[in-house]
Amino acid sequence: MSTEAVAGIGATPAALTDRLDHGTVARELATAAAIARAFAPNIPPSADDDASIEGRVGAIWRAVLGRTTIGRDEDLFELGGDSLVALRILTRVLEQFDVEIPLHRVFQAEATVAWMAEQVRSASSTVKNR
Question: If DSSP codes are grouped into helix, strand and coil, which group holds residue 32?
Fold first, then answer.
């Protein structure tokens, strides 16, 4: 299950040169996204959560690495990733799941989508049990 939000902009923001003002569009979309997150329904956990977490982590990896497919057990560094790519992935994981995985742990483990999804699940269950 996913929650979607639609945001409208009253008029197309234009700069003095009568061109699209990308900065204003970006600010308005960021504001709309923040509002949508604040009012999103609190969806209870389901049996599909494990699969959806792994799917979302996989989507982050595909976006950052620019690939259409990545296996759940493929190593980040064997896929051409480096420390900067790992940092980009961890930043997106933090934004999407509110889970911070220290960069050094990526280098200490066999960094795969499955491993990272497990880190997210573990951190999420720790927060729930507090």
Answer: helix
